[in-house]
Write a structure and sequence with these properties.
By secondary structure, this protein is α+β, with helices and mostly antiparallel strands. The protein contains seven helices and 62 strands. α3 packs antiparallel against α6 and α6 runs antiparallel to α7. This is Fibronectin type-III domain-containing protein.
């Protein structure tokens, strides 16, 4: 290696070693900052000397960050050199590009400010010596993370938008930060209803449902951020729902009575449940004819009352009073009218009442202060006690006038749909009650032509039609609407069904009429008369009313075309009672929240049908809806009661009115413990409470099962999945007991030899097929009679449970062929034997020659195959059989439950088939249990030993007959007969054991129940 190359290598090693020493020294400095240092070489002098004769690089050490805060930092360091340091600098930044510099003061210090909080900074310190050689030192530091500033600024609400329809509205707004969604709304500035969603969002949207048409609603928006700062809209903000064009129904029970000086009117307003947007009624008076529109006549009453007395009347003038219903959209009903006049009666002047003599001087049935003539005397003025409460709603079954309207229980209009107010059969019919129900001056059957018989409940009949038959109005031309004119109600047997208190619209298409009618009136019952109003939009005549009292009410449409051209058509209104929620005492349960769900599982929108959803049960527990036909589900919720979900399947009459029961939750057990009572008393209280809770939970369980069973989805799954699965379970479980090779002979025995199956035993001599080792008869063996010369099968028989068979044959030569699953014919064990114990004429397959017509009754032994079974296989075979039995039983139980869910005829048939199949195959495959058992037990402890392998051998042939495994009680048994046997016992923890010879020769089949003692190894 030449000298120049050696010098170059030496110079490279020297520079690299110096660089490494400086790097290690700088890296060892640790003052809470991360640092390293590099010392690049510099050409500090001319040519080849590299440093001007012994000059070294500057050294940077003792780098210290004396203080690092949120926005400031201070650094100090030392710089030295053998020739002297000429300059030092400090640069820093958020990347290795730096970008900022600190002012270096004496003794190498710098202070930094204006730093960002919680930020990583990179820095570099440089030192230059007088020889222009430079050393650089790099590192990082991080400013402190400033604590979060408390948020005290509420969100800003903006861009408020309201989108309204007839019964719904959507209110939207935005906030400048994530906040929850709250909305207070109602009919006044006090609101009363609210919507709340805790989910934070920037864009907010609130859907409102079940609103009244053409109604002003007040609302307030509130949004609160995560720090609890709230903001709300300022002032009273309102929106107005859009009006509808469906008029409310007419009032019902409109009656008119007269006195000598005034006319009294009374009526029942449309139910707010069925017509929530009802506002008021208007009564218009007119002379000699009814008012067709609200402005046709003199308005005498406007309000929400149910009676009015007109005192501004003149004698002997026929006044017509037409009453119109109005809703929030200012729609009005077609109107219902009554007419009457006052006819003065001049009574004789009665004597004056003398107040205080205890006599009825004026003969008016009233004495002294009870007489109106004395009412103003001081001694007759009685001040009623003050009351602090207003009357409550009417409770329909307590015999009290709760709302103080002088109508009690079922007589109160509030109870029109109460299920307990159904008209009973014993109530006198209109044609047999001694009253003039239709106001025509004629009373009951025999006098009033409107009474067809004494049981007729309607005294009114329309005039006889005079128009030709071919132009008469037919019932099928009428259209009946419910649910805000959105649901078409189809008459069934001339009856239109609806929920009591809900609206009904009767429409008559113009094309169905003979001409333009002068009048068209809808008469309902004995007194109500509703006018029709023509709509040019769809060219129909409309009359609006509502389903009134529960039961059937006769109605007629009467048409007068003029020129004595009259027509009429009749139908019935079938008013159904409301649904009701009751408690355990069958009392109405108020305040239950009831929600109706559609087939898609979502809340069913009832606003389009003029009804509310969800609803709360009223004071009597009543609720109900008029809906399109279909499948629905309702949920019931009330504090202190178990919730309930009920399926309403296949609604066909548009009415949902179930009678349901809610179960109260029991009192918590800890509330039954009274520290003031003794321990026995508390135990008694807890025991009683536990008993009550058990009863309640049982009732709830039954209720849940019933509700689930009534679910149409459950019924569908039951019929399409559960029943087929149960069929498979029973068939698979049952068929697993026996092989098909046994099943097919059984069918042959069942259908071709039924008397043998039933146990026919009149014949004493039979052929016999039996097991050559245990001498037991073999059932369901197929025995064939063959022509000995042609081997053609002449007859076939199947042995019964006793192994018996018989052939009746003519003279000839025959052979027998026997087939049985897991057996061999002819027997090898008894080959050459002519008898076997009590059994003689052993048959081995020889030709049988018959010279006279007789029977063939051979004794045929069969040798078993696969007699040796592994213990593990025996154990799992037993487990499998138990599982098969359980599967089959479960299948039968599931089919029974399916029958409860879906009571269909074919499921009844499947259940019967399941039971028959199960027991037939059990009889075929499972032998009967013996009355006695053999026991294997420990010689020392006398404890039973399970899992012992017991084997039965035929001692004559020393062949294995059967194998059993003892159960958990050490029990086992074998069935055998007419031979000698012995039993061996094996267990891995015990010495093998062999029994004495068991002699059963000359005996019928019996159980081998030998007890055995085993000694442990």
């Amino acid at each position: 290696m030449n000298r120049v190359l050696k010098k170059m290598i030496f110079l490279f090693v020297l520079i690299f070693s110096g660089f490494f020493w400086v790097y290690v020294q700088a890296a060892n400095v640790d003052q809470g900052i991360t640092v390293n240092a590099t010392v690049p070489s510099s050409g500090g002098g001319g040519g080849g000397g590299g440093g001007g004769g012994g000059d070294s690089f500057p050294e940077i050490s003792n780098v210290v960050s004396s203080s690092v805060s949120y926005t400031t930092a201070s650094f100090s360091w030392s710089a030295s050199d053998n020739l002297g340091v000429s300059a030092s600098s400090f640069v820093y930044g958020t990347s290795i590009s730096y970008g900022s510099s600190g002012t270096v003061t004496g003794n190498y210090q710098t202070s930094l400010s204006g730093l960002a909080t919680g930020t990583l900074y990179y820095f570099k310190i440089s030192a230059v010596d007088t020889g222009n050689q430079t050393t650089e030192y790099t590192g990082t530091f991080s400013t402190l993370t400033a604590p979060p500033v408390a948020d005290t600024t509420p969100p800003i609400i903006s861009n408020v938008q309201v989108d309204t329809s007839i019964t719904t509205a959507t209110i939207q707004w935005t906030t400048d930060e994530s906040a929850d969604t709250q909305l207070n709304y109602g009919l006044t500035g006090a609101y009363g209803s609210n919507y709340f969603d805790v989910t934070g969002a920037l864009n907010h949207s609130v859907p409102l449902v079940n609103l009244l048409p053409s109604t002003t609603y007040h609302f307030q928006i509130v949004s609160t951020d995560a720090s609890g700062n709230s903001a709300s809209t300022v002032g009273d903000v309102t929106f107005v729902t859009k009006p509808d064009n469906v008029p409310p129904p007419d009032v019902s029970n409109f009656s008119l009575s007269t006195t000598t000086t005034f006319i009294v009117l009374s009526w029942t307003n449309p139910s707010l449940v069925g017509t929530p947007d009802f506002t008021n009624v208007l009564i218009v008076r007119k002379v000699d004819s009814p008012s067709l529109v609200p402005g046709d006549g003199t308005a005498v009453y406007t309000g929400t009352g149910t009676n009015f007395t007109d005192t501004n009347v003149i004698e002997n003038i026929n006044y017509f009073y037409t009453i119109f219903s109005f809703d929030t959209s200012n729609n009005n009903s077609p109107g219902i009218f009554r007419n009457g006049q006052i006819v003065p009666i001049i009574p004789p002047t009665p004597p004056s009442e003398i107040c205080g003599n205890s006599l009825d001087d004026d003969s008016n049935g009233q004495i002294d202060c009870a007489d109106s003539a004395c009412a103003l005397l001081p001694q007759c003025i009685v001040t009623p006690p003050p009351t602090s409460t207003s009357p409550g709603p009417e409770i329909c079954d307590n015999n009290i006038d709760d709302d103080n309207n002088n109508r009690q229980d079922c007589a109160d209009p509030a109870c029109v749909g109460f299920s307990g107010c159904v008209v009973e059969n014993q109530v006198a019919k209109a044609c047999n009650n001694g009253l003039d129900d239709d106001g025509d001056g004629k009373i009951d059957h025999g006098v009033d032509p409107g009474c067809d018989n004494a049981d007729d409940n309607d005294e009114y009949n329309p005039p006889e039609p005079t128009v030709p038959e071919f132009i008469k109005l037919d019932l099928n031309k009428l259209i009946f609407f419910g649910g805000n004119r959105q649901i078409i109600l189809e008459p069934i047997s001339d009856a239109v069904t609806g929920l009591s208190g809900t609206s009904l619209t009767v429409a008559v298409p113009e094309v169905s009429l003979f001409g333009v009618p002068q009048t068209m009136i809808l008469h309902v019952g004995n007194t109500d008369a509703h006018q029709f109003v023509y709509s040019s939009t769809d060219k129909r005549y409309y009359a609006d009313l509502f389903f009134n009292k529960i039961g059937l009410t006769q109605a007629y449409i009467e048409i007068d075309y003029g020129s004595d051209q009259l027509d009429s058509v009749g139908f019935q209104l079938n008013s159904l009672y409301w649904g009701q929620i009751t408690d355990k005492d069958e009392k109405g349960l108020a305040g239950v929240s009831i929600t109706l769900y559609g087939q898609d599982g979502g809340i069913f929108e009832m606003g389009n049908f003029g009804q509310l959803n969800p609803v709360a049960s009223d004071i009597n527990g009543n609720f109900g809806w008029l809906v399109p036909n279909g499948d629905f589900k309702i949920s019931l919720e009330k504090n202190g009661y178990y919730s309930r979900s009920v399926s309403i399947n296949d609604v066909r009459n548009h009415v949902i009115n179930p009678q349901l029961n809610l179960i109260a939750k029991p009192v918590k057990l800890e509330l039954k413990i009274d520290p003031k009572e003794s321990l026995p008393t508390n135990i008694k209280n807890i025991t009683v409470a536990l008993t009550g809770q058990t009863k309640i939970l049982s009732t709830v369980a039954v209720q849940v099962i019933q509700d689930v069973a009534n679910n149409p989805e459950v019924e569908k799954v039951n019929e399409e999945v559960v029943v087929p699965t149960a069929v498979t379970a029973v068939v698979v479980g049952a068929l697993s007991f026996v092989s098909w090779l046994d099943f097919l002979p059984f069918l042959r025995l069942l259908f071709l030899q039924p008397l043998m199956l039933l146990g026919w035993r009149k014949r004493e001599k039979w052929g016999l097929v039996y097991n050559s080792l245990n001498k037991m008869p073999i059932g369901l063996a197929m025995v064939r009679l063959l022509n000995a010369e042609t081997n053609k099968v002449l007859q076939s028989k199947v042995t019964d449970s006793k192994g018996r068979f018989i052939f009746m044959v003519a003279p000839g030569k025959y052979k027998l062929s026997i087939q049985k699953n897991k057996f061999i014919f002819p027997s090898k064990f008894l080959e050459g034997f002519q008898s076997d114990g009590q059994r003689v004429d052993i048959y081995h397959g020889e030709t049988i020659e018959v010279k006279n017509s007789t029977s063939i009754t051979a004794t045929i032994p069969l040798d078993p195959v696969e007699a040796t079974k592994r213990p593990g296989r025996l154990f799992w075979q037993k487990v499998g059989r138990n599982l098969q039995t359980a599967l089959s039983v479960i299948g039968i139980l599931v089919t029974g439950a399916s029958l409860y869910v879906s009571p269909k005829w074919y499921i009844v048939g499947l259940l019967v088939v399941h039971i028959v199949v199960f027991f037939i195959f059990r009889k075929l495959a499972v032998p009967s249990k013996p009355k006695n058992w053999g026991f294997v037990y420990d010689d020392s402890s006398r404890a039973p030993v399970s899992r012992v392998i017991a084997r039965l051998f035929n001692s004559q042939f020393n062949k294995l007959v059967d194998t059993q495994v003892t159960d958990s009680a050490g029990k086992y048994y074998f069935i055998a007969g007419d031979a000698k046997y012995y039993v061996t016992y094996e267990h891995k923890e015990y010495h093998p054991q062999k029994s004495e010879i068991i002699d059963l020769e000359g005996k019928e089949a019996e159980a081998i129940t030998v007890d055995a003692k085993l000694k442990k190894h």
